[in-house]
Design a protein that fits this description.
alpha+beta; Homing Intron 3 (I-Ppo) Encoded Endonuclease, Chain A; two-stranded antiparallel sheet; 6 strands; elongated; binds zinc ion
């Protein structure tokens, strides 16, 4: 569901404000730092309707960057995950996030880029295009 279709204008404003007070700008960067709760992997967490407990009105926690993406850019398809292009896991700037194919993103993250001659055969641009390729 798109954020603009969720709840009422008053509920949307309240949710956005509750989110915003847990953020601050990062000087000298366009990153927006999450200063609320952080999970074990270094990602911000936020109670939101993206993860509503079944049969109740209680919100579960979602990753804060995922909520930021939903607010501004839309729902994340089930076959995609979100990658921080800025590499700052606490960043919630929706324009620093991109949708990628999850298993490829994980596999590339596990490569030692500096010690793998095969890696040198492709440019960063090639890798980015591959990660975002809808055809795969
Ligand atoms: Zn960022």
């Amino acid at each position: 569901m798109w954020f603009t279709e969720w709840g009422t204008p008053k509920k949307r404003h309240a949710l956005v404000l509750r989110f915003l007070i847990k953020t601050r700008p990062v000087p000298g960067s366009e990153c927006i730092e999450w200063i609320g709760a952080i999970d074990n992997h270094g990602y911000g967490v936020f109670r939101s309707p993206l993860n509503k407990r079944r049969g109740t009105s209680v919100y579960g926690t979602s990753k804060a960057h995922r909520v930021a993406y939903w607010f501004v850019r839309g729902p994340v398809p089930s076959n995609r995950s979100i990658d921080h292009e800025c590499r700052f896991t606490r960043c919630v700037n929706p324009y620093h996030l991109r949708l990628v194919i999850p298993y490829i993103n994980t596999a590339l993250g596990n490569i030692d880029r500096h010690n793998n001659p095969v890696y040198d055969l492709v440019s960063e641009e090639d890798l980015d295009a591959f990660l975002e390729d809808e055809v795969l």
